[in-house]
Amino acid sequence: MKTIKLARVFREGVQNFYRDKWLTLATVTVMFLSLYLVGIAIFLGFGVLHVINSVENRINVSMYFDFTVPEEKIFEIKKAIEDKSIEQIQSVTYISRDQAIKDFVEREGDSQEIKDALEMIGDNPLPASLVITAGDAASYEKINAYIQQEYKDYLMETSYEKNKIVIDEIHNAIVFGRNVGIVIGILFAIIAVLVTLNTIRMSLYAHRQEFEIMRLVGASNLYLKMPPLVEGVLYGLSSAIIASIFLIITIFSLDPFTRKMMHNVDLSSIYGMTIIQVIAVILVLGVSLGFISSYIAIHRYLER
Amino acid sequence: MKLINLESVTKEYSDGFVALRNVNFAIDQGEFVSLVGASGAGKSTLLKMIYADEFPSDGTVYFGGRDITQIRRKHLPFFRRNFGTVFQDFKLLPQKTIFENIAYTLEVQGKSDAQIFDEVNNILRIINMVGQGHKFPNQISGGEQQRISLARAVIHRPRVLLADEPTGNLDPISSLEIVRLLLKINSFGTTVILATHDKSIVDKLNRRVVLMDKGRIMRDDLRGKYIISG
Q1: If you placed Cys at A220, which of A42, A161, B29, B77 could pair as Cys (CB 3.0 to 4.6 Å)?
Q2: R_g of chain A, CA atoms, integer Å
Q3: What share of chain A is helix, strand, coil (3-state, %, to 5)?
Q4: Å from A192 to nearest chain B CA?
């Protein structure tokens, strides 16, 4: 196709886009709503994953050592566990008895009762411990079994039994959350594709008589096909831009609310990178949806 | 050699309706032929056979000696550039201005912008619509729309102009204007085939008249009148 014709079909597509205002408005509105929903779904997915990760990071298993076990031995065990690198252990942290009592007082605050109780005992009642964290909540059971088997003689107890219920619940919530997220995301994406496809097909259906006329005055098939493709891309692009703007507005207006709801979770990393990623996905999705829908629709009208 | 030649052409649709029955018919370059007959006589189908919008169920259609029933679909748009077509319902593109409607025929052929500008303005002068190029089809009268449609049909200097009931929706004065333009176009050497059931127009023309009835050619007079009794 010659350059002059290429320029013309492009101009033609742009012209169709702004001259048929009602059709453009209807198509863009429907596409924008679909893309907006997909954007919200993606964003919720990111958010849920982030919350899950930060909760997961706070789970751990503590090994409490008998008072009789010397510090050197504990370091030895720490090194052994680290070297063993079983079950994706992420970190092993040593907390001495002094550190433990300091943390305890700090955590419990200035309660007079606690101070009195500690004074009564006189000695430091807390054991030294190793705090183990793993990448996956499901690993703790195996880690605990391993520790129990290898170091039973040195241990007072582990926190595993106490934490087990919480760990299991979190693990189940993670699996459930991921599955629900995947299903909702896929559903929204399918709905968006179907709605867009049908909307663009209907808008081309409104123009079907014009294709006949154009063919009659000698327009080649390629010359007929190109303007609707340009039009489809423009529909997708403008819908995606509007959806992105609304997404940003939504996210920032919900910001105080989400911060309040998840006061323990650092949300700042969700903003920034994630917003850019979501918008990139929406733009690519919008443009390709517009193009593909037009392509499918135009082929149906030109096959005769 | 005849420009257009239909040999034993029959057109039967899938529902069993027979639009053309064994039609034999030829047209010379530069002729002005009126196809007359009642609605459903087969006039439109005959025209569609000529510009390859429909294909015969039996028989052959030749254009310039070439069998157009064998033409490949992707070559159709280029074949169609031999023709200009005008219809009862004008078939203008509603989203385009008058200027753009006429220019479209030249645009799809890749003519330069400067050439298109000159030729469209030139033809707007011929059809007496200078200065109206910026309007849209719904902003002008039926007679004016048909003049635009006619301008679009001939701007690329086709060999044949096919007019299917071009005056069907027009008042008598607008109709006369269209016929006057058809004669003018024919005088430049373009073959004109006019399908109509407007007796007064045909009788005024005093050119070749082909009478059709129920898919058959009943009469073919070199300088004829529209004789209804057949």
Answers
A1: B77
A2: 31
A3: 75, 5, 15
A4: 29
